[in-house]
Amino acid sequence: MQHLTFSVAAEPFDHEDAVRLRAAARIEVDRIYGRPADRGRPLTEAAAAVHVIARDRSGLALGTASLSAAGDGVFEVRRLFVRPDSRGQGVGDLLVLELLAQAEELQAPAVVAEFGVLQPHAAALFSRNGFVRIQPFGPYRDDPESVCFSRAL
Fold it and tell me: What is the C-alpha to C-alpha distance for residues 37 and 5, in angstroms, rounded to an integer?
């Protein structure tokens, strides 16, 4: 997907920019919660059905996100992260829209997302992209800090 100043495209899961952005995401989320806050299944190359990176015109990686199978043909948005200096410019929205397009190509009936209660910016991002709040699912079912959203395709 193309924007005036940046684009989003599928790239290898293990690309150094993707690895670096996922590490930054982990550090930020752990800092927000004051402890390791990783929930759910580990995101690995084998688990990532789709992986995308947003880049500016010069090729600088601005953000990343992945889709992994959540069951029954549904895909889960995983590790969506935008560099702090690139937020507020629509990078997150374009990442979500590209993941939705990829999920449609995979004939998914829906896409789900999970994040923690201390990440209201994530709720705003998913809400403005047509997602609605749902009960925690799968590995998040018994986690009182999990917030889950879904969008039918």
Answer: 33
| Separation CA 51–CA 25 (nearest Å) | 15
Res. 2: pLDDT tops 70: no
pLDDT, average across residues 121-133: 97
CB 130 within 8 A of CB 111: no
The SS3 call for residue 45 is: coil
Start-to-end CA distance of the chain, whole Å, equals 18
Question: Once rounded to an integer, what is the mean pLDDT over residues 60-65?
Answer: 98
Which tokens go with 130? 């047509």
Distance of CA 70 to the CA centre of its chain: 13
Q: Which helix (H) or strand (E) holds 27?
A: helix 16-33
Backbone Cα Rg of the chain: 14
CA dihedral over 9, 41, 129, 20, signed as positive or negative = negative
Residue 150: both structure tokens together: 């879904």
Tell me if 8 sits within 8 A of 54, measured CB to CB. Answer: yes
CA distance 86 to 44: 25
